[in-house]
Design a protein that fits this description.
Blueprint: H1 2-7, H2 11-119
Length: about 120
């Protein structure tokens, strides 16, 4: 029976184990508190970073709006350019028609001059 009695933890050992567990818990709590304190110290820096990022986002929004305005301007220029190309083609066609009419008129005048000379 003495053997069993030796294997069983004594009250002192139980108390020491409880104390050890309590000390471990307190140490863990202390570490968690320190981590929390460090995180709390980082809050102002995080707020500054957030404010900086918000400013950056606002600037990027302005840049995007500017670029969108430029895109509208470029689309307008492209549209105007295409309209000018169409107008140029029309003018070239009119010029070609006028040149043909001019050549016909010159030929007619030449024919009329021949006829006039023959008549004389």
């Amino acid at each position: 029976m003495e053997k069993k009695h030796d294997d069983a933890p004594s009250d002192l050992e139980k108390k020491l184990t409880k104390i050890d567990q309590e000390l471990v818990k307190q140490a863990m709590l202390e570490v968690l508190k320190e981590k929390e304190i460090e995180q709390l110290k980082e809050i102002p820096q995080a707020k500054e970073r957030i404010a900086h990022l918000q400013e950056t986002v606002e600037q990027k929004d302005l840049d995007i709006a500017k670029l969108q305005g430029q895109v509208v301007d470029l689309e307008s220029l492209r549209s105007n350019y295409q309209a000018l190309l169409v107008k140029k083609t029309q003018v070239e066609c009119e010029r070609d028609d006028l040149q043909k009419k001019y050549l016909k008129a010159v030929k007619k005048v030449g024919d009329m001059e021949k006829t006039t000379e023959e008549v004389q």
